[in-house]
UniProtKB/TrEMBL annotation:
Protein known as: Cytochrome oxidase assembly protein-domain-containing protein
Pathway(s): Porphyrin-containing compound metabolism; heme A biosynthesis; heme A from heme O: step 1/1
Region described as Disordered: 18-43, 121-140
Catalytic reactions on record: Fe(II)-heme o + 2 A + H2O = Fe(II)-heme a + 2 AH2
Gene Ontology, cellular component aspect: mitochondrial inner membrane
Native organism taxonomy: Eukaryota, Fungi, Dikarya, Ascomycota, Pezizomycotina
């Protein structure tokens, strides 16, 4: 390499590479210095020249400064800034030129190979056993797969079906036909005559057979046995068809971290629901849980817990699936989604949103009250509407009867009658159902007034209309079930109508909500689209 310095500039030349650049003082420039750059591109196929270029990039900064300048730097005072500025400009140009040359050389095979080797040498060593927690968290996608959303909706539909079938099992008094809980071996029914006789013998030892079905033979027993066995088998199918895909979707990173936690929570709830089911059945196999000589039945508390858990599981699946599908729909057309979310944030819709949330709580409470009615067979009394006997309510002495108290001082009079007195339980259910009916009508009327009517989105308006139809159908089914003394078809339809009404309220509430995560994804996609333009 040749170096030559003058009083007014520095000139550097690499003969073997064909690269020449110089700096020259220019009094007319803004800083008194100008840089003249001359570069002769080397042949791309000359590997030796490429090697020199790569070596030039690794040279120290002092290699590009002439010896005369170094000697002057040691002697010259700090005020001599022109030479310093010229040298710094030369170094800056050398770095820029070398970087550009390196970028050009990366298009050749040797350049690519050297870049890969350099990146490998500079990469920090990863600890054995996997990546860090931040890397594992970032491996989850920003949006869950659409297939997960459809699978959740299908699982919710299966839970809807088993709730209705469970009501049929209770109405046909088949729930106590299997007196044991075998989660694995109980998947198969009795396979031989001896097995059937053994199961029938166990049932004959139960209070239900002794007090209610003592006339039953083996053929009739098989009918109620298969009802309960099918109900339990359906529950096992729901558990396996949910837990196994949950493991797969999380392992394959097909869901977001939030949905992954939701799937794990639902899986745990399904297992807990199976335990509650057996806990409920077990209460009907002991005669110490009900009055001597009365109709054998399961505990109304455990029945309400079993039904409520099923409703919670169904609602959780439904809302999770709808949120995933809604996110994908919003990302397909982010501009329309942004407009829809902006409309939902209107202050005029605040009252509708709160009303629907209150409706959800009211419907859930009415469903719990209906479970108590079913557990106590309270629908078999006062089979008339709207009166209960001679008036709208039974006599006060019947509603608050000390017969149901277990404390001598009567301190449990109120809550025990509200939960264990069939007359008061039915009256409570009537009041809650009537309140729900008129509350839906009130929300419908409110959504058609003034500012709310102008601001309410079309899909929310359809949801409110659907609630009116559902609550009207449910009220009619409830009245008919009561008047006709709980026939099995009407009673099963009434239970299905309760779940359908809850579905309508949940869907309407979900349409009114602005999901923050989806809104952030939509805004991010809009910003990305704007930046690309």
């Amino acid at each position: 390499m040749m170096r030559r310095a003058t009083a007014v500039g520095v000139k550097l030349k690499l003969p073997s590479s064909g690269l020449t650049f110089s700096t020259r003082a220019n009094p007319k420039g803004p800083t008194g210095t100008s840089i003249e750059q001359t570069q002769t591109s080397p042949p791309r196929n000359n590997l030796a020249i490429l090697g020199v270029r790569r070596a030039a990039a690794q040279l120290s900064r002092s290699s590009f400064v002439c010896g005369q300048y170094i000697r002057q730097q040691k002697i010259a005072p700090p005020t001599s800034s022109r030479i310093v500025q010229l040298a710094r400009a030369a170094r800056s140009y050398a770095t820029t030129t070398t970087t550009a040359t390196t970028a050009d050389s990366q298009h050749t095979p040797i350049g690519k190979l050297s870049s890969q080797l350099g990146a490998t040498a500079k990469a920090p060593e990863q600890p054995l056993g996997g990546s860090s927690s931040d890397d594992a968290k970032s491996s989850f996608p920003k949006t869950s797969s659409k297939a997960v959303g459809y699978w959740l909706i299908g699982s919710a539909a299966s839970v809807f079906g088993i709730v209705v079938f469970g009501g049929l099992t209770r109405l046909t008094e088949s729930g106590l036909s299997i007196t044991e809980w075998k989660p694995v071996t109980g998947s198969l029914p009795p396979m031989s005559a001896a097995d059937w006789e053994s199961e029938f013998e166990k049932y004959r030892a139960s209070p239900e057979f002794k007090l209610l079905n003592s006339h039953m033979d083996l053929a009739e027993f098989k009918k109620i046995y298969f009802m309960e066995w099918t109900h339990r088998l359906w529950g096992r199918f729901i558990g396996l068809s949910f837990v196994l895909p949950t493991v797969y979707f999380i392992a394959r990173r097909r869901v977001t971290p939030r949905i992954a936690g939701t799937l794990v929570g639902i899986s745990a709830l399904i297992g807990f629901q199976g335990f509650i089911g057996w806990w409920m059945v077990k209460s009907g196999l002991k005669d110490d849980l009900f009055a001597p000589g009365s109709h054998p039945r399961v505990s109304q508390y455990r029945l309400a817990a079993h039904l409520s858990t099923a409703f919670v599981c169904y609602s959780w699946m439904l809302l999770a699936g709808l949120s995933i599908l809604r996110t994908h729909k919003a990302l397909r057309d982010p501009q329309a989604a942004a407009k829809a979310f902006a409309a939902l944030q209107s202050p005029a819709l605040r009252g509708v949103r709160g009303s629907v949330a209150g409706l959800t709580l009211l419907v859930a409470t009415t469903v719990f009250s209906g479970a108590l009615v079913a557990g106590l067979d309270a629908g078999l009394i006062y089979n008339e509407f709207p009166k209960m006997g001679l008036g709208l309510a039974p006599p006060k002495s019947e509603l608050w009867d000390r017969f149901y108290c277990r404390n001598e001082d009567g301190s449990d009079l109120w809550w025990r009658n509200m939960l264990e007195n069939p007359s008061l339980v039915q009256l409570d259910h009537r009041i809650l159902a009537t309140t729900t009916f008129f509350a839906v009508l009130a929300v419908f009327a409110f959504s058609r007034t003034g500012r709310v009517k102008a601001a309410i989105p079309k899909d929310v308006r359809k949801g409110v209309n659907g609630l009116v139809h559902l609550v009207s159908m449910q009220a009619a089914l409830g009245i008919c079930t009561l008047i006709y003394m709980v026939p099995i078809p009407l009673a099963a339809a009434h239970q299905a109508g309760a779940l359908a009404l809850l579905t309508g309220v949940l869907v309407t509430g979900q349409r009114l909500r602005v999901p923050k995560s989806t809104l952030a994804l939509v805004q991010k996609k809009l910003l990305k689209a704007a930046s690309q333009k």
